[in-house]
Structures are given as structure tokens and as C-alpha cells.
Write a structure and sequence with these properties.
Number of domains: 1
Shape: elongated
Structural class: alpha+beta
Number of strands: 5
Length: 146
Amino acid sequence: MIDKSYIGHSFEPFTVDIEKGRLKFFSRATGQDDPIYLDEGAAKAAGYSSLPAAPTFLFSVDLEQDNPMGFLELLGVDIARLLHGEQEFEYHQPICAGDSITLQSRIADIYDKKEGAMEFIVQTFKAINQRGEHVADMTRTLVVRN
């Protein structure tokens, strides 16, 4: 069983610079066909400062840290038993090319179902831009098969 004393544990924040090329690549890879995601002129005409991040892009920002699965080591979870359960995003304002996003994550909950056959890890992320503005929240739920 995962030690529930880790509920509330916060991890060191880390910062990622958001680049146009990466946003375009992600948008193409996820099938975005709205020109605001691929054409800076269209994005600016729509009121953005530059190319905006596609709706689920924030997930990939988390993977930029040095050891994105390090929290699993802390919790003693074998990645071979891990399933991605759910991902939620709440945007408060756009994330655009040229922004520098700092992510702060914490373990929000750990619980089990089916008498411990499945354990759930709920991790929350708060995204702050270079101006100190709270731009987004992300919640990830992982399932550990025992």
C-alpha cells in the first residue's frame, strides 16, 4: 500500500520556457486545425500575444522536469503497475509562446478501491507565468494495479 502520509507533499517547482516551435509541433500532433495554434498572425488577430498553447499542452510541460516520474520513486510505485486514469485542466488565462511557466505540484490524495487491488494517486499542479499570474491548474489521477 502507498503510504498515505504523502498526501499534501509538495514538490520543488520548476520552470519551462514555452517556445513557438514546440507549440506548433504539439498542435499538429494533436490534430488542432484552428489557425490560431499554427499561425502567429491568426493568433494575434484573435487577441493572443503569440501562439497559444493547445488545450492539453500543459501535460507536456510537466514532462520537462529532470525526473518527471521521480514522485513514483518517492511513493515506492513500480511504473510497470501504473495506468493513467484521468487528466483535468482548468485554464484561467492563456499560455502563449514566450511565456515562462512555473509548475508547482503536490500529492492531493491517495486512496484505494477493491480492498487495495487498485490504488489511486491524485496529483495537482498550479501553473504560474513569468508575471506571477496564476494561469492554469491541472489534476492528474494515476492508478496503481496491485
